Amino acid sequence: MSHGGRRSRQGHAQASRSVAGLLSDMGAGLQARPAVPVQLDDDRLFTQFVSARGRRARGTGWAPALAPLSMWRMTSEQAPVLWPLTAAQGLPPTGAQMGIDLLSGGAFYCDPLGWVKDDAIGVTNPNMFVFGKPGRGKSATVKIFCLRMMDFGYRVLILGDTKDEYEGLCLALGVEPFAIGHGLPARVNPLDIGPLGGGWERLDAAEASRRASIVFHRWLMLIRGLVGSQKIGSESVPFGPSDETAVSSALRFLTGFTHGGTRLREVTVPQLWAALDEPTDQLVNECRFASPRQFYDETRTLRDALGALVKGHLQGLFDEPTTIKPDWRAPIQSLSLSRLDKSGDGAVGIALLCLNSWGQGMREIAERGDVRIVVRDETWKQMRLGLEPVKTLDSNLRLSRHVGDVQLVVYHKPSDPLSAGAADSQAVAIAKDLLHLADIRVLHGQDKAVADELADLLGLNAVAQQLVTGWAMGGKGRALWTVGERQFKVECRLTPLERDLTYTNEALRIA
Ligand SMILES: Nc1ncnc2c1ncn2[C@@H]1O[C@H](COP(=O)(O)OP(=O)(O)O)[C@@H](O)[C@H]1O
Ligand SMILES: [Mg+2]
Description:
Blueprint: H1 2-11, H2 19-25, H3 79-82, E1 96-101, E2 107-110, H4 112-117, E3 128-131, H5 138-150, E4 155-161, H6 167-172, E5 178-179, H7 205-228, E6 231-232, E7 235-236, H8 241-255, H9 269-277, H10 281-286, H11 292-298, H12 300-311, E8 332-336, H13 345-362, E9 372-376, H14 380-383, H15 387-399, E10 405-410, H16 416-419, H17 425-436, E11 440-444, H18 451-458, H19 462-469, E12 478-483, E13 486-492, H20 496-501, H21 506-510
Helix pairs in contact: 7-8, 7-13, 7-15, 8-9, 9-12, 13-15, 15-17, 18-19
The protein binds adenosine-5'-diphosphate and magnesium ion.
């Protein structure tokens, strides 16, 4: 550009205007360059002046030709007049600095709540979905995002660390994660009432009923997901309207809500199952069954599915009142599920389902300014369980509306929810619905075979698909970030400390 300018200045010396002239037409003048006095201290770092070409000696970086640089000095308001076509960094430099935006060459910052507040960016919720093949750097991106957002007062909640990979980050921050596993004392009650149950006796009737409907809905979605995760042959156990009535009524009885109790009693899944397995006459009437016999017949699969869970995956983990006491003021809290790894993906999926629902409950009330990043890594394990567990996740995210929470979900492919059931239209609709819950998507590398679903489910064009299946596969931490309608080609950069904290190939290193 500077060359062209110089040539044209020579060629049309009379006709063309100077930069100063052009700017003055726009109502601004060029600033004079202030004289900077050169100060030489005795302890100065460089004792000798070197010409711009460097020193002419081997290994000193001497350049035979100078780069064709031209220097201009003007305000940022004036610069666009002279360089109108330069690609600019489209997002403001606020929030966590994540790495380089390769399209503009500038730094890339991620600030979900800031983006929601800025109408020009077109993001309506601060939730983030992170996709990518295993080993592409999804978890590392999540960890450094969390770490760098802590500087802005964000706290972090890890809802299920299935491989203990967040442990290093927690310990570096002086926090011990809670370990959940068979034979360990920690219990999480997925039917925990949560902070909404606090001070129940002081609530007026309207507020009590508003809160009760939130809590009962959360519980119902959990039980629906748990029951739907069970299989008869290859089919999921159905959860119909009669099942819903039976579960809701039983929960209302057990908590004492039916009788207008001054506080809600804590209920566990085994208690719910027992209440359904040996129903009182009152429960049978409430559900409008003619006789206990009919109740038994209509709820058999429900009772059997719950019974299997109570004696199986929930036992010793999620079947008693909550014993852990998270410190909500600590920078990070994490629930480790790595002890369940040997029990298989199914057990881990059920545990994630329980923790997700519990985590939603914990965030139903929060103090002002208590902003939190809620991380759900390896969520595909929950999605594999069936369509009902996917719907439970959808509801957890939809209802986690505490202002200031960033819901961060990590899975492999946009079609993961479809692996749950047949890829029929209902499943596709659910997968798409889930995607609508996040306006920010981080797409790490994927195999070529995934290109079609990137187009169908995410609406990516050919250029963007190529970035995900080609360029992003060429390096860890490379991802296409879609922020509302905009796309950014970002390479995340780790500091040496962060590289240690995010290292996940421990087993390989030892081997
Ligand atoms: N941006 C990056 N730069 C350098 N190394 C990275 C980057 N992102 C991830 N890694 C390394 O790659 C490995 C796998 O990353 P990880 O986040 O566990 O992948 P995923 O969660 O996608 O399976 C880790 O050891 C991590 O330290
Ligand atoms: Mg990971």
